[in-house]
Recover the amino acids of this structure.
């Protein structure tokens, strides 16, 4: 099966057009339609593509472009009974997959075409051991005995660089981290050496340093087995890193197809150009004036956080006493000035969101939080409520953070209502103004959240946050769930509002490129503590802490000409912030390395 | 696991203590006077007083309860006022019959309920699904004595497949178990259906399909163990409902269990028996819930008992 393996040097797309580049999968005139309330709607229209042996074809596009539907159509896993292939053929070797029945298709799935999905946390069955989930697909497609299947499973785990593969077989998915689970998924998919691997956003849910490792692994395995990969992604950085050829999709249609170098260097379609222009890149944020240095320290701070601790107790033992504690935030200190954006960056579990929640008064904390010169811990309930008006929050998921049963106008007016501000008529007028300010129209006030797109909903959330004219807005991954083009526009809006009202932002994100674009100052968090803090230029041009360096290096660069060589592999997992009582983690001390650039001694 | 069990046993003992106190207090406050029942209508006030003193019922509430509690600790549930025998013996002699009925009923509800729920979930939105759900609704809403009499009429009187009442062979067990099980089966069918539909939408089921597994493996290996968890928790709670149902069903079918014992005792204000049956029921409920919690980690490895 792996006869025609092309040894492909990283950084170049040589397999295209080479003698080994025989096509493995051919799609011609594929149309997929979904039946909805108002009749059938085409989500993939007249798509044709060819996948050659050993090549990586990236299907790139924003949400709703039909890229995932295409993948599911190939696998015949379209959501039933609503979606169906309405025409076209999907040729795998001599077989047209579109004509196969379920039973015939079962023999193809997992054996000749395998698939991995976006969510490693939910894509493995929680009640079955890793071993069982690995061996069952081997047993389903081969006549191997269970001992042989087990051996194959161990081999597969070793292939994805999982240590102690033998004992891992007995583990359950919840005992593994997200990155490990995705590697298990890959092991499962590649155990039977399929001709084609479809990877649907395989690294989107992973931390950026883990993403680097998983992409690297896919590349290595492809080189070893000669597997053809269809990689579906919205991230142009990943495309640049991985693709030989690229298909750009929009509204179910192919907009452009070409070699990766051509797509990035000479995009022909307008949409591709727009898409590439919207991609945040590290190194482009420098155009923004650096406020970090111009604002004197003596100026009144909007918010000051000093030695903040947040811990969650875990109970155990005979009487259910507290015996372990999650040290989510350990002695974090920072301040934010008006007009300033402080970015809090770090990977999942580093405590950045918990810090934000403490600041917004959503979790109990120890330490001092001073907002507008008033220390919250010394205040009564009513005073605290009044102070909190100055701090508002915008959350990550615009779909989940708006009550589906309320009109959006009422949602935006709610903070005013809670704080007893303005009469009903005045409230409506203020909401109307806010709607226009965030780029919506006032006559949309009476609609419900489901009638808006993701970007529009995030605008509604921004309007809601603005309603009380806060001094500080906490944006917790507020643009992470948005498509890049929408993301760029929302970021512009945030910047505009800052210029206009002088709002300070605490901008929480895992995306270094976005952070570089919007922030004045940056604080990098790791395991509940700040390891590096300074102005944007200090942190991005001169990262001093090894973790900061890793974070910046791990970001895929949206330029195929700048493909990284090998990405350094992390040999251990990030340690857990859960510790026994009486054994708090060692406290890091920050040292000024010049001009207020603070770095933890490592 | 051991500390967990220790804690749960302590909690259970406290619950039983609470149940005994509340039941005892309720019976104490009862307007019906057990002594009158024992002495009969023609007894002189003197006789009534004598009996009252004999039984210790002239003592204040706290003293009475204390005595009861002390003998309870030595496993003595007291003597029946009417039947002149030990309550412990009465209950022990009748418990096997009730337990048998309970096992039969649980088997019926699981077998019927889970199968119906599973089929309905897989055939979601079809006529089969709708028919099954209507059937389960009837099962849930029909009163047990009606179901019991209906089953008796059709299968015992008309068809003669099963005996009309009594106790002894497996044939005797079928109709009472069905009567008890149909109510629960309706609940389980609805619960299983929604739980299964939810599980079938999960990512890991899609993964299983993407691996090329056959339908049976997906359904029974991947979906069922995940879907059945809420049902297992329900079985623990169900035992409480059974204890209510057992009184009705044992009367309808002349089944010699503790349900019948309780029914007779209530009619005659035989307080020691009522207390005894209540405590045994409470014990069964506590035990059922404990067992359900202990079984859960074997189905779902994410659940840790601590």
């Amino acid at each position: 099966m792996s006869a025609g393996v092309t040894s492909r040097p990283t950084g170049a797309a040589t397999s295209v057009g080479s003698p080994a580049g025989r096509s493995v999968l051919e799609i011609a005139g594929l149309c997929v339609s979904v039946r909805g309330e108002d009749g059938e709607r085409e989500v993939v229209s007249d798509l044709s593509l060819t996948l050659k042996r050993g090549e990586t074809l990236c299907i790139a596009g924003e949400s709703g472009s039909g890229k995932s539907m295409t993948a599911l159509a190939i696998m015949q896993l379209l959501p039933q009974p609503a979606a169906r292939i309405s025409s076209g053929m999907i040729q795998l070797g001599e077989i047209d997959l579109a004509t196969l029945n379920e039973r015939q298709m079962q023999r193809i799935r997992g054996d000749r075409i395998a698939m991995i999905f976006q969510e490693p946390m939910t894509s493995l069955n929680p009640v079955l051991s890793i071993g069982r989930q690995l061996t069952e697909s081997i047993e389903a497609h081969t006549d191997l005995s269970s001992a042989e299947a087990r051996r194959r499973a161990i081999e597969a785990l070793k292939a994805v660089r999982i240590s102690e593969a033998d004992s891992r077989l007995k583990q359950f998915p919840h005992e593994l981290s997200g990155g490990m689970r995705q590697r298990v998924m890959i092991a499962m998919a590649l155990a039977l050496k399929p001709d084609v691997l479809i990877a649907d956003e395989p690294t989107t849910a992973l931390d950026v340093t883990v993403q680097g490792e998983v992409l690297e692994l896919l590349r290595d395995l492809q080189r070893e087995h000669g597997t053809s990969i269809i990689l579906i992604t919205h991230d142009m950085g990943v495309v640049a890193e991985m693709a030989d050829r690229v298909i750009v999709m929009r509204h179910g249609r192919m907009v452009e197809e070409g070699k990766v170098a051509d797509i990035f260097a000479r995009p022909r379609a307008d949409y591709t150009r727009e898409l590439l222009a919207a991609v945040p890149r590290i190194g482009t944020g420098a155009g923004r004036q650096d406020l970090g240095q111009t604002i004197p320290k003596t100026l009144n701070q909007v918010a000051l956080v000093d030695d903040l601790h947040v811990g969650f107790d875990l109970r155990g033992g005979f009487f259910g006493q507290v015996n372990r504690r999650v040290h989510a935030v350990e002695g974090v200190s920072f301040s934010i000035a008006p007009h300033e954006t402080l970015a809090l960056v770090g990977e999942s579990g580093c405590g950045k969101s918990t810090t934000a929640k403490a600041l917004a008064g959503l979790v109990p904390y120890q330490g001092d939080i001073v907002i507008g010169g008033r220390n919250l811990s010394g205040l009564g309930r009513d005073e605290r409520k009044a102070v909190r008006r100055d701090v508002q929050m915008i959350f990550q998921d615009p779909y989940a953070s708006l009550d589906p049963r309320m009109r959006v106008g009422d949602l935006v007016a709610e903070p005013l209502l809670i704080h007893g501000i303005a009469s009903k008529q005045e409230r409506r007028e203020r909401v109307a103004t806010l709607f226009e300010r965030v780029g919506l129209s006032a006559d949309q006030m009476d609609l419900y959240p489901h009638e808006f797109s993701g970007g529009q909903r995030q605008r509604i959330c921004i309007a809601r946050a603005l309603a009380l004219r806060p001094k500080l807005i906490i944006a917790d991954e507020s643009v992470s769930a948005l498509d890049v083009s929408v993301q760029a526009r929302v970021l512009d809006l945030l910047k505009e509002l800052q210029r206009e009202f002088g709002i300070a932002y605490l901008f929480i994100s895992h995306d270094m490129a976005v952070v570089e674009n919007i922030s004045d100052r940056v604080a990098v968090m790791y395991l509940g503590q700040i390891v590096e803090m300074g102005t944007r230029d200090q942190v991005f041009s001169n990262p001093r802490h090894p973790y900061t360096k890793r974070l910046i290096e791990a970001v895929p660069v949206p330029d195929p000409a700048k493909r990284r060589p090998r990405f350094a592999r992390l040999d251990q997992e990030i340690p857990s912030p859960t510790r026994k009582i009486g054994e708090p983690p060692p406290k890091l001390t920050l040292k000024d390395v010049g001009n207020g650039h603070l770095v933890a001694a490592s | 696991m051991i500390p967990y069990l220790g804690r749960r046993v302590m909690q259970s003992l406290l619950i039983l203590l609470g149940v005994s106190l509340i039941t005892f207090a309720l019976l104490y406050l009862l307007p019906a006077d057990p002594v009158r029942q024992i002495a009969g209508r023609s007894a002189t006030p003197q006789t009534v007083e004598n009996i009252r003193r004999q039984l210790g019922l002239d003592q204040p509430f706290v003293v009475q309860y204390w005595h009861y509690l002390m003998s309870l600790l030595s496993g003595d549930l007291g003597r029946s006022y009417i039947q002149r025998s030990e309550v412990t013996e009465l209950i022990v002699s009748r418990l096997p019959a009730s337990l048998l009925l309970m096992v039969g009923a649980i088997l019926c509800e699981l077998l019927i309920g889970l199968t119906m729920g599973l089929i309905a979930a897989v055939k979601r939105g079809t006529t089969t699904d709708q028919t099954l759900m209507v059937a389960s609704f009837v099962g849930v809403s029909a009163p047990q004595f009606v179901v019991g009499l209906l089953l008796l009429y059709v299968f015992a009187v008309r068809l003669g497949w099963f005996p009309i009442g009594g106790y002894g062979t497996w044939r005797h067990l079928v109709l009472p178990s069905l009567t008890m099980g149909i109510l629960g089966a309706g609940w389980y069918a609805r619960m299983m259906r929604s739980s299964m539909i939810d599980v079938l939408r999960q990512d890991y089921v899609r993964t299983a399909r993407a691996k090329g597994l056959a339908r049976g493996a997906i359904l029974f290996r991947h979906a069922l163990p995940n879907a059945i968890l809420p049902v297992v928790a329900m079985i623990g709670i169900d035992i409480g409902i059974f204890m209510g149902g057992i009184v009705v069903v044992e009367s309808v079918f002349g089944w010699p269990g503790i349900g019948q014992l309780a029914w007779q005792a209530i009619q005659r204000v035989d307080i020691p028996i009522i207390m005894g049956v209540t405590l045994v029921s409470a014990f069964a409920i506590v035990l059922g819930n404990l067992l359900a919690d202990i079984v859960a980690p074997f189905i779902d490895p994410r659940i840790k008992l601590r």
